[in-house]
Fold:
Amino acid sequence: MNQKPIAVFLNERKVHRIIYGSLAYKLDLDYALPLPELKIQIEEALKKWLADGKHFSFLQHIKLYFSDGLHVYEGGHHIDVVALNKGSLNILCIEDHLV
Structure:
């Protein structure tokens, strides 16, 4: 199911934030937070979401990445859920674009 990206304009920081991926609508996150704070929130939400046992099909989809480990990566202007040694999973990406 292709879902539209979420776009958030953070006027006080003059940033246009784009959020996309299959988890963009599934995790309860405050997308207006600064990236370092949002990264911590994503890590906590992802742990809870995966631990509740209701997401078997999703877990099967990314099962091969668990041996290398999942990681929430924060770059200069983006956050991405990645599998170590494999790269982006494209399940949750947040990009800040200066305007």
Summary: The mean pLDDT is 82. The chain is about 30% helix and 35% strand. The first strand starts at residue 6 and ends at 10. Strands lie at 6-10, 15-20, 70-74, 78-83, 87-98.
